[in-house]
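Progress report, Aim 2. The chain analyzed during this reporting quarter is listed below.
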Amino acid sequence: MTVSPVVTLLPLELAFQFVSPGPMVFEWGSFGIRWYGLLIATAVLIGVTLSQVLAVRRKLNPDLISDLAVCLVIAAIPCARLYYVLFEWQEYAQNPGKIFAIWQGGIAIHGAVIGGLIAALLFARFRKVSFWQLTDVVAPSLILGQAIGRWGNFFNSEAFGAPTDLPWKLFIPPSNRPPGYENSAYYHPTFLYESLWNLATFAILMALFFRDQQAKPKLKPGTLFLTYLVCYGLGRFWIEGLRMDSLMLGSLRIAQVVSLIQVIIGLIGLVWMYGLQRSLPDVVSATEAEKAESFGKHKSD
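Predicted structure tokens for the chain:
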């Protein structure tokens, strides 16, 4: 199997030129492993482990995270695909057999977040645990997983920006270039921009989390998740404006609209808590939440 270098270092003028080795990790007859699937699986594994560690520090039962992870995967991946297919229905109406070909790419993170939020709300209500406590320990893992998953776009040579001659340009093979851009070989590596932005957001959330371990008064439940909404929304709004394959509703880029809504919701929630000094509505009462946290409190004694 021939593997092209991910980053071309020589000659000097092509420094940081990104060249995908292709979508497959390896193939053996009809069997193969794709980078996209491997990255998603890696993100889930790392995310669950990290969230369990954070849950213990927040005096939550870490077993809740394992159970929640199953619900999130079941809800998020189909919703991410459904979201994408709905806004690309003209293409899939002609090829309905491709609707389920998720291994070829074509999932939308906003669809995954919406599906995951619905699953988390139902899970929190059923297990009688604070929704905001859950989202606070999941938010850092979520943004880290997004940072990892974005590299799937690199290996698939998809979700890139407009043509560019910047030193960190991304080479796109002719078969993946948009109509009318057949002679343009290099494009903005928007996968890289978003991955780096997400890593910066992850660093902010982790800094807030560990600061909260020492600070008094403590951050209010929901702070980390609302901060995630604001930070990710701002970055995605900017980066989406560079892309050439945005999902559209008329003349509007759907991801920019949803990102703007995310930012507004996050800001309203933060002002509600810290400006008006009020708590966010939750799916369980404080008493029920305390009972669900009793395992963590016992462990810390």
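The two ends are 55 Å apart (CA to CA). Residues 1-14 have pLDDT under 50 and may be disordered. These observations will guide the mutagenesis work planned for the next reporting period.
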